[in-house]
Amino acid sequence: MSVLQQYKCPCCDGAIEFDAGLQKMKCPYCDTEFELETLQSYDAELRGQPQDNMTWDTAAGQEWTPGESEGLRLYTCNTCGGEIVADETTGATECPFCGNPVVMTGQFAGDLKPDLVIPFKVDKKAAMEALQNHYKGKVLLPKVFKDQNHIKEVKGLYVPVWLFDTDADAHVRYKATRTRHWSDSNYNYTETSYYAVVRAGGIGFENVPVDGSTKMDDALMESIEPFHIGDAVDFQTAYLSGYLADKYDVDAEASIGRANDRIKQSTEEAFAATVVGYSSVIPTSTTINLQNGRARYALYPVWILNTKWNGQNFTFAVNGQTGKIAGDLPMDRGAFRKWFAGLAAAGTAAVFALSYLLWLL
Question: Are residue 200 and residue 292 in the same domain, yes or no?
């Protein structure tokens, strides 16, 4: 039985055909011509592309020593199901995620003890000031929001985070072009040259954070990064005094996918920065092999501010170490329409001025 070998054009991905007149392979879509030996070599290299190997040692966290967790209590929110760990001096409180009352369900037990904790450096007053500063310069923010929104709850919360360390060997392939333009008395010409560019090498990663809580929005948590791990200390229950701690519900094993995504994206960005001198660069494949991968369990300090306005809840997160804030704000639709109309009018005026200038010339 015969097998038909079909090649794809490296330039446009179209199916390439053999041109009997040229005695070459030719793409019917972009008219690029290739020697058969060149395509065979290129195809062999693609088929030899290594596969990802992204495995981890996820033995993160520690076992609690006898009596170490006796001063901790577990609170459960009846509305969103969130489980919050606090010290025994904490009275009735509210859920930092949905703002509803939570009840103490008993002695904290089980799960792992964190390896590290970054203590709070930003106090409650500074967190509230960060929110007020966040309002400044927001031209589409309703004017009454600043005065009428009610800060329903401000809670200092330690968020569970898995920290991933690894060494990565990466192989990234790009499709690049260089374009040249010239003219003569009759025509304008454009010549586009295509290149297969490869970058390979090693890159190390330390403390790649992945949120270990489904109740804490990943995008919100990553928006207040970075946290400076140099301030981290060995975990002690004393750091929880006066604060809450979210109980992780995503373990290290389940967090590997997000860690791999972040590592892969960072690797591609670092390698792409070395591909210079081309008109365009498009990544076509990335292969990463990880070595010495390990995970650790840490607690990151975050102030959660819940505000309510016009029947809606708005949640903001403040980095408890640096004061960086993130969160959604309401939009004044009337102000937006005026702003958009003004922008459109400015664009129309600019087009008219340009047309008038060309008419004068």
Answer: yes
Q: Which helix (H) or strand (E) holds 126?
A: helix 124-135
* 88 and 226 co-located in one domain: yes
CA max distance for the chain = 90
Nearest-5° Cα angle at 321, 131 to 306: 35
Domain co-membership, 26 together with 141: no
Range of the domain at 18: 8-48
203 is a domain residue: yes
- Chain segment 95-111, per-residue pLDDT in tens: 777 766 665 555 555 57
Give the closest residue to 98 by CA, choosing from 79, 126, 112, 118.
Answer: 79
Cα 346 versus chain centre, distance: 35
Q: Is 340 exposed, middle or buried (0-12, 13-18, 19+ CB in 10 A)?
A: exposed
pLDDT attached to residue 152: 66
Spatial distance between the Cα atoms of 325 and 139, rounded to a whole number of angstroms: 18
Tell whether 89 and 148 lie within a shared domain.
Answer: yes
Question: What pLDDT does 122 receive?
Answer: 93
Residue 14 main-chain phi, psi, to 5 deg: -75, 160
- Taking 3-state DSSP, the helix, strand and coil percentages for the chain, each rounded to the nearest 5, stand at 25, 40, 35
Q: Is residue 176 part of a domain?
A: no
Q: Give CA–CA dist 285/291, Å, rounded.
A: 20
| Strand order across the beta sheet in which 17-19 lies | 17-19, 24-26, 33-34
Torsion of CA 286, 31, 180, 199, to 10 degrees: 10
Return the closest-CA partner of residue 156 out of 85, 209, 217: 85
